[in-house]
Every structure is written in structure tokens, then in C-alpha cells.
Amino acid sequence: MPRWDRVKASFFDGELLADSFPRLLDAFVLDVMIFVWTTPFILITAMLIAIARNTRAPSLFPVRIFAIAYTDIMRGVPVILWIYLIGFGVPGIGLERPWNSPLLWGSVALGLTYSAYVAEVFRAGIEGVHESQRAAARSLGLSSAQTMRHVIIPQAIRKVLPPLMNDMVSLQKDVALVSLIGPIEILRQAGIDKAKFANFTPFVGAALIFLSITIPLTRFTDYLLSRERERTGGSRVR
Amino acid sequence: MKLRFDAVSKSFGDNHVLREISIDIAAGEVVTFIGASGSGKSTLLRCVNLLETIDAGSIALDGDVITKVGVDPNPVRRRVGMVFQSYNLFPHMSVARNVTLALTEVLGIDSVEAMDRARTLLERFGLLDKIDRYPDQLSGGQQQRVAIARAMALNPEVLLLDEITSALDPELVGEVLDVVRELKGSGITMLFATHEMSFAEEISDRVCYLDSGLIAEMGPPHQIFTEPANERTQQFLSRVLKGQRRD
């Protein structure tokens, strides 16, 4: 590799990494915060949409149509476009501070799009619970709402934890897209440092910081799943 | 009359599963439904706790028609318990919670008292040591006994048993039938769809042979099993009993 020295110098500069690392970490706090406040929003909205889509009463037909239209529209447009449209568009109608913050509306855009993806994950989980479970719950006199809450949704969530985690890891990374409408989070900070030093090492630093969060998150889910299997499962086939 | 079926009909598309079925069942009576797969046994049972809606006719519980449009199914289901062929226990809940769920959520009983009731029921069915287990950790026979305990928790007046031994290994059938035998002694009204002919003969007050959605023959068990009047009953029984002897 004749050019390795040049790659090494512009991507793996140890001194520069040490220099930019604290700034990157500082900026990463904003990523974590966006992640932390969008996640509950996404989980709740997504579950409501999934439930809306699984309603059966003929009178709730408009609710189902809304849920379908929502997921189709939000998933059909790139995330970054929603961030531009909502992040610049909503403050553009003349909101006062602090309600005109691109950070706020960028987060909302991220939350609304991810809700559509996660709603589909939940829906798959709900539909994956066998109809006989519903029959058993209803035969005991549970209402359809009680059946959902106690019998269907708890099983659905267990079924979809791995794909759900997949979306959460993906969200953790897509938080960086909010930087494109202003807020200085890690990706933007890395860009600033890259420009200042004319060196790509800050991006490698940012990548390392992302990995330090996403990998433990994935391993933790695996652990939760295997613990659940141990607790409720029978003997396992080798 | 505890339960009255009056010209009950039900079809799935072109398939007429029940054709004008009429039966009166007295309180405390045990009526067994036999017949080939697809003869309508399960559907008939599912209609009683309104898991299926009937197309014509009516079903009355203690004189009240429960199949009218606008009847709230939930109070009816509290009075009619059901046990399924494939147990249908809730796999994410312990045995205890499977039994107490309807007590706390449907009847609003506090969890301590619900737990007491669950313990009493599970002890009665020989499952007290399994109270903290999860369904997947139990044998089929144990699971089905838990399912019976779950159905009995609400103290139903009518119990529907839908081929409850069909998914079990032969050596596990006995323990489940013992529970049913015990229940008969308690005076509950039971509708029992089964392929266990000798048990049907032992436990039933009446046996009803269903053939393509019609009651081909109904009467006391010894009459049905020893001198069936209908030719189709004879054919069905000789076919089934030959199979069961081979076991």
C-alpha cells in the first residue's frame, strides 16, 4: 500500500484525534439528548399508529385510513427532506422564540418519520400474535382494548425487540441529520474541525463515539432477549 | 332451560357449518358433541360464547337471547368459560397470572384475593407447585389443566370444552379427563366436543352426533354407542372406535 502513509496522516492523526476528541464529545451530548427525547415520542406515536391500523370495528375505518396514509407518506420521503421541510418550514410561519428553533422542529421531523417506520415494526408484531390468543382473551370476557393491552401488545413487543432495536440504532445515527439545519452536534463539529485542520481524523473520532454507544446498545438488547427466553421458555433445542 | 339453541345456522362462505341446530340443555347437564372433523362441533361451541356470530336462529342463556345484535358479549363470556384444543395460554404470563387476569381485569377483584382464588383452583387441579412457572415450561397435559383453571376462575355457569385432549399425547389425556370428571361433580353445565368416545360414554348425560352441520342423532350415551339408530352414526362410530382400539 504505497499511499498508506498519506491515508494515515489525513485520517488517523493521533495528535489531532486527542485534540478534537473533547470537542466532539461535547457536541455528542446534543445527539444523545435529541435521541433521548425523540425515542419516547417515537415509541408512543408508533404504537398508537400501529393500534389504529389494527382496529377492527367497521366504524373506525377512517382511523385505519389515516394510519395507512401516515405511514405511506412519512416513509415515502427521505428523512433528510422531512427535516428540511419541517425544520425550516414550521418556524417559517413566524413563530416566536423559543418555538422557532430548528433544533426543536428538526427533532419533531425525525420523530414523525421514525414513528412511521417503528409503527410498521409494531404492526408486524401485533399481527404476528396468533389469533387464538385473542380468542382466549375475549372468551374470558376481556374487552378488545384489554385484550390488546394485556395479551397482544406485550407479546408483540417481545417479538419485535430485535427489529425495533435496529431502528433505534439507526435513529441514533440519523440524529446527525438534524445538524444540516443548524444545530452543532457531533457531525457538524467534526466538519468544523476537519475544515480547520484540513484533516479527516475528526470524522474517525465521531465514528468511534457513535460505535461506543450503538454496539453496547445492541449487546444489551441481546442480553434482555436471552434473559426473557430463559425466564419463560422451555428447554431449548441444541 | 340453561341453554337453548333455536334453529341456529352458520356458514363460512358456501360452507354451511351449522344447519338449523336446535337443542335444549338443562342446568348441570353434560352434553357431548361427536362427529367427524368439520361437522360443526367446534363452531357450535364458539357460537355460545360469541366468538362466532350466527347467521340465523338464536341462542338463549337462562332465557335471555345472547345472539341478538347489540348484546354486549363481555357479560355473556363471563358466564360461559371456554377451553381450547391448543390450550391458548398466555405465554408471557406465569400460571398464576393466566388464572388471575380475568379476575383482576374483568371482575375488578384485588390481586391478593385473586391470587387466593387462583391458588385454590390450581390446588384442586393438582397444579399448585406450578404456580410460578410459565406455560412453555409445562407439559401439554399440565397446560391444558391450567387452561381449565383459567376458564373456571370466573366461576362460569357453562363450560365449553373444544376437543381439549386432541393435541395431547395419549399418556397425558387421562390427567385432563380426570379434571373434567371432577368438574361434572360440581354441577356445572358442560358442552364437550370430543373424539374420546369411551370418555364421552362415561361422562355424558346426552351425546349428540353432528353430521355436516345437522344433528344426525341425539340421545343418552348407551343408546348412541350401543344401538345407534342412524346409519351414519353407526358408520362413524365403527370407523372411530376401530381407530381408538388400535391405540
How does this model look, in words?
By secondary structure, chain A is an all-alpha fold. Chain A has one domain (4-232): MetI-like fold (Orthogonal Bundle). Chain A is 79% helix and 0% strand. Chain A has helices spanning 4-11, 14-53, 61-76, 79-92, 102-128, 131-139, 144-174, 186-197, 201-232. In chain A, α2 (14-53) runs antiparallel to α3, α2 packs across α5 (102-128) and α2 (14-53) packs antiparallel against α7 (144-174). Chain A is flat, with a radius of gyration of 22 Å. By secondary structure, chain B is α/β, with parallel strands linked by helices. Chain B has a single domain, classed as Rossmann fold, CATH 3.40.50.300. In chain B, 40% of the residues lie in helices and 24% in strands. In chain B, strands 6-7-8-3-9-10 form a six-stranded mixed β-sheet, with helices on both faces. Chain B has a four-stranded antiparallel β-sheet with strand order 2-1-4-5, covered by helices on one side. In chain B, α3 (95-105) crosses α4 (111-124), α3 (95-105) packs parallel to α5 (140-152) and α5 packs parallel to α6. Chain B is globular. The A-B interface holds A 132-133, 135-143, 146, 150-151, 154-155, 158, 231-234 and B 46, 49, 51, 73-75, 77-78, 80-82, 84, 86, 88-92, 101-102, 105-106, 134-137, 147, 150-151, 154.
